[in-house]
Amino acid sequence: MRRVEETALAWVHAHRDRFALGEDALAADGQVNRTWKPLGELARVCASVSLCTPPSDPLHARVSGLLDFAWQQTRGGELFLLMQSLEPFATYPLEVYAAFASAGHRHPGYEASAALVARTRGWRLTEQYPTRRLGVIEAERHSGIPPHGRVPQTLDRTWLGGLPEPWTFERAAGYALTHVVFHLTDWGRTARGVPPELVTYLDHWLPPWLDTCLDARMWDLSCELLAVAASVPCPPAPAVLRDAWHRVASAQHPSGAIPEEGALQDAARPGPEDPYDFTDCYHSTLMAVFAAALTRARTNGTGQGHSGRGAPA
Q1: DSSP string spanning the chain?
Q2: Using CA atoms, how far apart are residues 289 and 141, in angstroms rounded to an integer?
Q3: Which of 18, 130, 197, 199 is most buried as measured by Cβ atoms within 10 A of its Cβ?
Q4: CA distance 136 to 147
Q5: 0.85 exceeded by pTM
Q6: Whole-number pLDDT of residue 187
Q7: d(CA 115, CA 26)
Q8: In 15-107, which ranges are continuous DSSP H helix?
Q9: Would you kindly state where each structural domain of the chain is located, as residue ranges?
Q10: What residues in the chain have per-residue pLDDT under 70?
Q11: Tens digit of pLDDT for each residue in 208-266?
């Protein structure tokens, strides 16, 4: 697991320029999924890993450096103000900003502007999936804005919150449930946010769902489920986790990259050259770093409340 984390993080560091914001980040017709989304995911993972990794660990310095790099891409938060003026009722700028704020990077001007917009009926009535709504509530909290919704009522409307029949689990449901747990646990920082009935439900069904995704070579979702396993009060048995990490390691290329899905492209595994397009592996590689860091922190007793570089808002 440590080797997976180190090599995956080395790949992310070597490709950090691919997370940089270009001129299209503020364009009216810009593709958010290719600009702000990768940067926000980099910030989210690095913020969480820096907080659960002891400062004495060399990986702490690397993720802290990547987080600083990501913050620089926003011009110290100034771009969030620009995005606020261009798309005042878009929630993704606040969601990205909250990742930085959770690790101590703040821009008071943007927070004041976002708080003003958040007081409008238009903001409160923005239509979203319940899982996304949980994320916005979390982002508001980290940004010093009174949350415009209540977690229990929003949770009840999510797939996971409804305790569905376990055989209805599929790809979309899998990603929804992982993000519900991430929002409830503040991205792995505290397991106290998971209600008892969900703890019992996940205790039963997380292991077979994880096994199903690993069998299907869905590495991105598998890593997200491993992060969930490290975030809930009752993680799967050690044998289940050992097997899962061995299988994830088998999918990792020597360069450190892990594909979102499928078999390793080069069965011979020669050399460190990249076998995948950036968009096909960056998220799964980040999720491997995230899941490994949370798992190691929990195993070492430094997770669930450890505060490394900064403190949560």
Answers
A1: -HHHHHHHHHHHHHTGGGGS--GGGG-TT--GGGTHHHHHHHHHHHHHHHHHS-TTSHHHHHHHHHHHHHHHHTTTTHHHHHHHHH-TT-SHHHHHHHHHHTTT---HHHHHHHHHHHTSHHHHT----HHHHHHHHHHHHHTT---SS-HHHHHTTSTGGG---GGG--HHHHHHHHHHHHHHTTTTT-GGGS-HHHHHHHHHHHHHHHHHHHHTT-HHHHHHHHHHHTTSSSPPPHHHHHHHHHHHHHH--TTS---SSSS-S-TT--SS---S-GGGTHHHHHHHHHHHHHHHHHHHT--SS---SS---
A2: 25
A3: 130
A4: 8
A5: yes
A6: 96
A7: 21
A8: 36-52, 58-73, 78-86, 92-101
A9: 2-75+150-262+274-300
A10: 265-273, 302-313
A11: 999 999 999 999 999 999 999 999 999 999 999 999 999 999 999 999 999 999 987 65
The encoded tokens of residue 219 equal 């590495």
